[in-house]
Design a protein that fits this description.
alpha/beta; 5-stranded parallel β-sheet; 14 strands; 11% strand
């Protein structure tokens, strides 16, 4: 018997292992046949019972028809897909996973239907309770990945537009980490470029003695706007700002110190927001990759990718009207050159097998172009499903209830800190309305309001289709009925209350008791829980 208890991975992966052995025995000369395993779902939504199709079972192996198409007319011993399916079924190694198999009556498909053992489902759920869900993590084909997300611009406050990248990116990183992938969580902040010239010069004007304090600068967003106004309206200031960029890039201490102070103030503000959202990131901004740009461009030039065009150095991409500009007319670098250097570094220095970029859908063409350049340079394989691999995970906009971009009444972009403050405030008000302020301390009230309020914001984002726009509504996301975080949290609280009031030693019962999925609905729930790793797999593949 196959030692199933030592096997990890999803049910599909465990069944694939069994069917791979059967295919090897059935077709000894065909070593490249991969098992095609798919879950079955009852087609009748009104059907009661265990949710299992009485004819199709829980899973199917779908290789027979394809193999018959391949071997038909080539002297095979089989006379159709059904005999191939029968042979695959008969050659399956004995396993406690499978209760029985049958051949689908749907001709000419000839699927091998797999009925999972009720006892094995119960045993697996109990093992999950004792050892944790980590033992059921899917086996992904990568060991190390970079997830590039959030990525605000220095000297600008994070706004509602950063919400989706931060939440979706963190979720992808968590799922990869659950799947035993080493994840480099990268915050590619905008901490380099021409805008720092105007910021530094404005800083020098405001603080000529060089003593700069966070409180003195105040609202960094307002500081940025004021410096931009000077830059656009004062030619002399603009000229000084442009010289400041040169001094900064040359490494002059005075300018580097001013730049570092601006970055420090921004970073402190970002970190407070990340802590509130429970998100961890490691910052490697544009400035980190800047020293690598000349070498990377030299490599691309040797490959013949970089051409001169109207005074700039560019990479033309087939099918695109506008090229990637890697060196501007004035000799400076931009996002294209920085992103190429970052991709090279992540592939060659950090040895990442998969780099995932989480940004809004508006940047789709940019990623298509620079991925294409990386393929031409030989950094990435031509086929998208091979590794190393780079992927752009795009998302839609957050809209207000008027169907337009979510903004304040004065048409300003809503700051993320204000959005989180309001989520907590509304949730706290709802708790007080329920009389919780009479039972809880102020600290308990605040902690609960934060947990529920921030959780509601995150869940409302994740439950929506990633690639489409969605309407932001506090009333909807804080509703305690329907598909909301509040409903789930209350359900969890009620379950905990039932367990607490039972007076039972649950941990002891888990270790000493035996799980019996006697009722059909219990079997359905058990199987559904065991299929969690397959959901993770489908998200990525």
């Amino acid at each position: 018997m196959v030692n199933d208890i030592e096997t990890c991975g999803s049910i599909k992966q465990q069944l694939a292992k069994l069917f791979r052995e059967s295919l090897r025995v059935t077709l000894p000369g065909e070593l490249d046949v991969h098992p095609l395993i798919a879950p079955c779902h009852c087609q009748d939504p009104k059907k009661k019972g265990d949710g299992q199709d009485s004819k199709r079972g829980d899973y199917q192996c779908n290789n027979a028809l394809g193999l018959w198409s391949k071997f038909k007319g080539k002297g095979t011993r089989f006379e159709g897909p059904a005999p191939i399916a029968e042979a695959i079924k008969d050659n399956l190694p004995e396993s406690e996973i499978i209760e029985k198999c049958s051949i689908s009556p749907d001709k000419p498909r000839a699927f091998v239907n797999v009925f999972l053992s009720r006892q094995w489902i119960a045993k697996s759920i109990q093992r999950m309770l004792i050892d944790g869900i980590e033992i059921w993590a899917p086996k992904l084909p990568v060991k190390r990945a970079v997830v590039d997300f959030s990525s605000p611009n220095i000297a600008k406050e994070m706004h509602v537009g950063h919400l989706r990248s931060t939440i979706i990116g963190d979720t992808l990183a968590r799922m990869l980490e659950y799947s035993n992938v080493e994840v480099l969580r990268r915050n590619h902040v905008g901490d380099w470029g021409t805008q720092f010239g105007m910021l530094i010069e404005y800083l020098f004007e405001k603080f000529p003695n060089g003593e700069v304090y966070d409180q003195a600068i105040g609202d960094l967003e307002a500081f940025y706007k004021a410096s931009k106004l000077r830059f656009d309206s004062d030619p002399a200031f603009k000229e000084k700002a442009q010289r400041a960029v040169v001094s900064l890039q040359a490494g002059e201490e005075k300018y580097r110190n001013a730049w570092a102070k601006i970055c420090e103030i921004s970073r402190t503000g970002y970190e407070k927001l990340y802590q509130r959202l429970g998100v961890h990131l490691e910052e490697k901004g544009e400035s980190f990759y800047n020293p690598y740009i000349p070498g990377v461009l030299e490599m691309l030039s040797k490959h013949g990718l970089i051409k001169e065009s109207e005074g700039a150095r560019v990479i033309f991409i087939e099918g695109k009207k506008v090229p990637l500009i890697v060196v501007k007319k004035d000799g400076g670098y931009n996002y294209d050159s920085t992103d190429l250097a970052a991709l090279w570094y992540r592939l060659k220095e950090e040895k990442a097998e998969w780099i995932i970029y989480v940004t809004d859908v508006g940047q789709r063409e940019h990623f298509e172009m620079f991925f294409a350049a990386a393929k031409r340079a030989g950094w990435l394989p031509a086929e998208d499903n091979k590794y190393p691999r780079a992927s752009h995970v795009s998302f839609g906009l957050v809209l207000g209830e008027d169907g337009k971009r979510f903004r304040t009444r004065s048409t300003e972009t809503i700051k993320l800190v204000d959005l989180l403050d309001e989520a907590k405030s509304k949730c706290k008000a709802a708790l007080i309305e329920r009389g919780k302020d009479k039972d809880w301390t102020q600290e308990e009230l605040d902690k609960t309001a934060e947990a529920v309020g921030y959780g509601a914001v995150k869940y409302a984002d994740l439950k929506n289709n990633r690639t489409t726009n969605y309407t932001f509504s506090f009333d909807q996301m804080l509703n305690d009925k329907g598909n909301t975080a509040v409903y789930l949290l209350y359900a969890h609280a009620r379950i905990c209350s039932i367990i607490r009031k039972s007076g039972k030693d649950i941990e002891g019962l888990i270790k000493s008791g035996t799980l019996d999925l006697a009722h059909d609905d219990e079997r359905v729930l058990g199987l559904h829980l065991l299929q969690f790793p397959e959901v993770i797999w489908l998200i990525f593949f």
